[in-house]
């Protein structure tokens, strides 16, 4: 918890935090999002551009490598979003609103990227109900953290928290803002509500057995997630010290400097590529894409297994 003394003394400047807003961290997030969105778009648009029969005759498994690569980036993104927000809460007694908001934007970017991957890989996730529900739980945890972050950001606007005070001080100050209802205030509320709506739609898409309007949902959802990802990235870059102009006075320029931690963030992008190389060499077997005839069979098989378990108990 933040002490009362630390909330009563307003410093002139705050130190930078390269682990949150460093150039390498921001670049790694943007590159991962760009790759994942590009692969998702190729998988979603492929059946609309090429006829499945003729394309499959040329290559029996045209999307195995892309699906495996996208699955790795998807897992990476959902865990990055949860991890970043968890660390932010632990450091809420020292993080200023500037860093707290950047974490929220990066979390929104990871959420949008993961949902875009979900649109393309939903049939793969439906193969196993255990893995599907594990992903559902992770999505809920990410949503809960994002909503709480939104509440913190909203309260910092309502209470007019000084930019150089820790975000944890937001609960110790009285509301002094005369601009309640301004653009930032409304935008924060819309973002929180939008996260809840997107989570509800993603849950329906992941759990639903009805495949009506399947391709329409994929295309519209991909466009929406791409817009959210681009908006979150632009907001984070323009606000960061590394690429833009921060809204708080920083005492140093550590976020512009490259260090081992910054390079490590970029090197982590190589991990999914290693799995792809192993697939190409035949060292890892990957299930082929699910055909249209097998989509409903996945749920029928799951219902059969569940009924057998219930009968046995």
UniProtKB/TrEMBL annotation:
The keyword Protease does not apply. The chain crosses the membrane at residues 20-45, 98-121, 133-154, 185-206, 213-238, 258-277. Keywords: Membrane, Transmembrane, Transmembrane helix. This is Uncharacterized protein. It comes from Corynascus novoguineensis.
């Amino acid at each position: 918890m933040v002490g009362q003394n630390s909330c009563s003394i307003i410093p002139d400047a705050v130190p930078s935090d390269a682990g949150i807003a460093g150039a390498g961290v921001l670049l790694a997030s943007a590159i991962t999002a760009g790759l994942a969105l590009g692969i998702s778009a190729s998988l979603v648009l492929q059946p609309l551009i090429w006829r499945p029969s003729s394309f499959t005759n040329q290559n029996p498994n045209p999307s195995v490598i892309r699906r495996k690569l996208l699955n790795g980036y998807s897992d990476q993104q959902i865990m990055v979003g949860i991890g970043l927000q968890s660390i932010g809460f632990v450091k809420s007694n020292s993080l200023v609103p500037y860093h707290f908001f950047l974490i929220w934007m990066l979390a929104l970017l990871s959420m949008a990227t993961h949902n875009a991957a979900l649109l393309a890989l939903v049939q793969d996730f439906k193969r196993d109900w255990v893995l599907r529900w594990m992903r559902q739980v992770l999505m809920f945890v990410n949503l809960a953290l994002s909503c709480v972050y939104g509440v913190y950001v909203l309260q910092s606007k309502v209470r007019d928290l000084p930019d150089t005070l820790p975000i944890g001080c937001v609960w110790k100050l009285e509301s002094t803002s005369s601009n309640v209802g301004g653009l930032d205030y409304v935008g924060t509320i819309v973002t929180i509500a939008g996260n809840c709506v997107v989570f509800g739609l993603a849950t329906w898409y992941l759990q639903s057995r009805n495949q009506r309007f399947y391709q329409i949902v994929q295309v519209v959802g991909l466009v929406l997630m791409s817009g959210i990802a681009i908006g979150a990235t632009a907001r984070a870059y323009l606000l960061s010290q590394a690429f833009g102009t921060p809204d708080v006075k920083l005492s140093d320029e550590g976020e512009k400097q490259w260090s081992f931690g910054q390079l490590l963030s970029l090197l982590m992008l190589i991990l999914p590529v290693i799995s792809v190389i192993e697939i190409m060499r035949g060292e890892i077997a990957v299930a082929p894409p699910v055909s249209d005839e097998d989509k409903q069979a996945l749920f029928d098989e799951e219902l059969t297994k569940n009924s057998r378990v219930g009968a046995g108990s």
